[in-house]
Amino acid sequence: MTTPVLDVRGLAYAYPDGHQALFGVDLHVHEGERVAMLGPNGAGKTTLVLHLNGILTAGAGAVAVSGLPVVKEHLAEIRRRVGIVFQDPDDQLFLGTVRQDVAFGPANLGVRGAALERRVMDALDRVGMADFVDRPPHHLSFGQRRRVAVATVLAMEPEILVLDEPSSNLDPASRRELADILRSLDVTVLMVTHDLPYALELCPRSVVLSDGAVVADGRTFDVLTDEPLMRAHRLELPWGFDPRTVGSLPA
């Protein structure tokens, strides 16, 4: 078996107030996988994500990206390798134009001139937003801003794309467009979501985190049709949605 692109071993973390958020989490994601992270509110999903690029550091255990430990001396490279797209695109878009926002990360890495412009336009092409390169982000729709937020991460040429609730607040057309984009990307994806149909559509594999521990890891179809597991960990499918009528996605 090849080295996982994301390798989390025995990760435990307690916040300064003493709240223990993670209890010995193990998670291994290989290159090219699309994996959904599911779980109820308070399960520890956000805490885990913030360890993946060193925003939080492990109380116990270890995190590595393509064999590189997530420790202080490696943080610049780790943050290039692990791109996090937050739930609110306005947390990532803060400059005057789409071009400036998408260029910000690679420019901080020292990319300049024609190479920087290529990075920007390639990232925007991949999310279908190249025609908006000179627009102010605040003039875009919410769905367009989310796609630009994805482009700001893609411009860093990451190895792992981590998406926090990517379908939230999107209308049906924007939700479908984003799904098409995510399927087209040649990058490893870890998607944190409460949108279980979206997980089934996009991620062949799902990991369930509950009370700070991994309680299930398998095919998304199998997870979503395990009624005792779903009930025990407060996971509910939308009314009328039955994965058995949709079928499972190929790996």
Question: What is the topological layout?
Answer:
Layout: E1 6-14, E2 20-29, E3 34-38, H1 45-52, E4 60-65, E5 68-69, H2 75-81, E6 82-85, H3 98-108, H4 113-126, H5 142-154, E7 160-164, H6 172-184, E8 188-192, H7 196-202, E9 205-210, E10 213-219, H8 220-224, H9 227-232, H10 243-246
Parallel strand pairs: 3-8, 3-9, 6-7, 7-8
Antiparallel strand pairs: 1-2, 1-4, 4-5, 9-10
GO molecular function: ATP binding
Function: Part of an ABC transporter complex. Responsible for energy coupling to the transport system. Probably part of an ABC transporter complex. Responsible for energy coupling to the transport system.
Keywords: ATP-binding, Cell membrane, Membrane, Nucleotide-binding, Translocase, Transport
Ranges where pLDDT stays below 50 over 5 or more residues in a row are none
Number of beta strands: 10
User: What is the architecture of one domain at the second tier of CATH?
Assistant: 3-Layer(aba) Sandwich
Number of helices: 10
Side-by-side strand order of the widest sheet? 6-7-8-3-9-10
CATH topology of one domain: Rossmann fold
* Spatial separation of the terminal alpha carbons: 17 Å
- Compressed to H and E, one letter per element, the order equals EEEHEEHEHHHEHEHEEHHH
The residue-averaged pLDDT reads 92
The major pleated sheet works out as: 6 strands, mixed
Proportion in β-strands: 15-25%
How much helix, percentage-wise, in residues? Answer: 25-40%
Tell me, what is the CATH class of one domain? Alpha Beta
Model description:
This protein has 251 residues and is an alpha/beta fold. It has a domain at 6-88 and 158-246: Rossmann fold, CATH 3.40.50.300. Helices cover 35% and strands 24% of the residues. It is built from 10 helices and 10 strands. The protein has helices at residues 45-52, 75-81, 98-108, 113-126, 142-154, 172-184, 196-202, 220-224, 227-232, 243-246, and strands spanning 6-14, 20-29, 34-38, 60-65, 68-69, 82-85, 160-164, 188-192, 205-210, 213-219. The chain has a 6-stranded mixed sheet, with helices on both faces. It has a 4-stranded antiparallel sheet with strand order 2-1-4-5, covered by helices on one side. Strand 9 and strand 10 form a beta hairpin. The protein is globular. It starts with 5 loop residues before the first strand and ends in a 5-residue tail after the last helix.
